[in-house]
Specification:
single chain; alpha+beta; Cathepsin B, Chain A; 2 domains; 12 helices; 11 strands; 14% strand; cysteine-type peptidase activity; Peptidase_C1A_C
Length: 448
């Protein structure tokens, strides 16, 4: 095994061991998303669960790295640890099929992709929009999910994201079951259920004017938001653009799914722009992203790297907006504002544009049981989907055509600029292993 790959894997596995070690509390006193290990920051975050999550992430990273090596070099790969010598070292036929599918997807996908980069996105625009800022509240889950909704809409319609900005305050404080305050926090699965069960709280920013509703109160001092949510609903009832948004007639239809592998995460990012994940913030985070990072774009800074002395401080929810399989990094969009914002309250841990990179396999990013893909589109009978026919799908791809003499069992597709094999397969709902290239590189065949 090359030394560089060995070091990456060793770092990921050691991170899992460190995370599983007894937790004695944070050593940093600076302002953060949450100054304690609280379930409200992303999911269950006991020391045991943090360790298990980091170990699962390290294991998934190992499997992903094997698939990536196979896809890009044709190397032998390692197979499944603990498996027999059957099927090339895989534990069973199912694990072999999973590795095969992952390998094909990775080989047929861009090695570098970021939803913030207009050169990467089908719409030719950055999908991330303005950066959320939760200030000193434990509201990162609400900010992460509302941002994922916005990015998904921008990716679905291939449009500028600013018109799809969702109020994180309306979603966090008003979605049922209510009762959350600045300090209580939320769990990711509960927030995602609220997204589907209380769609009337997925509101445009214009329908929930936080500053006006708070009446000069500080968000951190409001213990009961029920009256504020009622006042917002009353104000919305007088606005033609907001009054029409109800539980029966939401503005957007959203779904979510759990993502259990790195290649699935990457596939969802390319299709829907972002993925919600839990990450463990270690006590060296503000050392690696110190005050000097506030003036630099996150993608120009070195990624967060493994540090043998680091200890977990708290769990945090954020969104993954990109990846780099050449450098083994994720792009994270945080909800701590930007370093250029004059109202920024944090002295460190913030970049100029709210983005940062983190090495794959670290901090539990992409943990299989704490990572979710959000998919949204304009609901029927709303301005962007007036006839409930999803007009944005018409110009996506040309249809498959049966090849002459094949009796509808083999279809040909002529690729367009920007197409990838993985993108075509996902669009038509195919099995990656059914796709065959022809001597003409611009044509693929799909076998049924």
């Amino acid at each position: 095994m090359p030394k560089q790959r060995f070091n990456r894997l060793l770092a990921a596995l050691l991170a899992a061991v460190i995370a599983a070690a007894p937790f004695n509390g944070p050593t940093s006193s600076s302002s953060t998303c949450c100054m304690r290990l609280a379930a409200g920051q992303g999911l269950s975050v006991s020391a045991d669960n943090l360790g298990a999550g980091a170990e699962a992430t390290a294991s998934e990273f190992e499997q992903f790295e094997s698939a990536l090596v196979l896809a890009t070099t044709g190397g032998r790969g390692r197979g499944s640890r603990g498996g027999s010598s059957n099927i090339g070292g895989f534990a069973n036929a199912r694990s072999f099929a999973a590795m095969q599918t992952a390998m094909y997807y990775i080989a047929g996908s861009p090695q570098v992709y970021d939803s913030s980069n207009p050169q990467h996105t089908p719409g030719g625009v950055s999908y991330i929009g303005a950066i959320n800022d939760q200030k000193l509240c434990s509201t990162c889950v609400g900010h992460a999910v509302s941002k994922a909704i916005q990015i998904s809409l921008a990716a679905t319609l291939a449009r500028d994201p600013h018109s799809f900005a969702v109020s994180p305050e309306a979603f966090y404080y008003c979605a049922e079951p209510a009762g959350r305050s600045c300090r209580t926090g939320w769990d990711i699965p509960e927030a995602l259920r609220a997204m589907t069960n209380s769609p009337q709280t997925v509101l445009p920013v214009r329908c929930f004017n936080s500053r006006k509703l708070l009446k000069q109160q500080d968000e951190t001092n409001v213990a009961d938001w029920s009256n504020i949510c009622k006042a917002a609903a009353a104000a919305a009832a007088t606005s033609s653009g907001c009054a029409a948004i109800t539980k029966q007639q939401p503005l957007y239809n959203c779904t979510y799914q759990s993502l259990s592998s790195f290649y699935q995460i990457q596939r969802h990012i390319r299709a829907h722009g972002a993925v919600v994940t839990r990450m463990v913030v270690n006590n060296d985070f503000e050392v690696q992203f110190n005050a000097s990072a506030k003036g630099k774009p996150g993608l120009e800074l070195p990624p967060y790297r493994y540090n043998v002395t680091a200890r977990p401080s708290y769990a945090h929810a954020a969104v993954i907006t990109g990846y780099d399989n050449q450098e083994y990094t994720w792009t994270i969009l945080n909800s701590w504002g930007t370093g250029k914002d004059p109202s920024q309250v944090r002295s460190a841990g913030v970049t100029a544009d709210g983005l940062l990179k983190i090495q794959m396999g670290l901090s539990g990013v992409g943990t299989p049981d704490a990572t979710y893909g959000v998919s949204c589109y304009p609901a029927g009978a709303t301005p962007l989907n007036l006839n409930s026919d999803q007009p944005w799908t018409r110009s996506r791809r040309r249809p498959l055509k049966p090849r002459a003499g094949d009796k509808d069992t083999c279809y040909s597709y002529t690729t367009r600029r920007g197409d990838t094999v993985a993108g075509i397969v996902d669009h038509f709902g195919l099995d990656m292993r059914q796709v065959r290239h022809t001597p003409r590189l611009d044509v693929i065949y799909v076998m049924e």
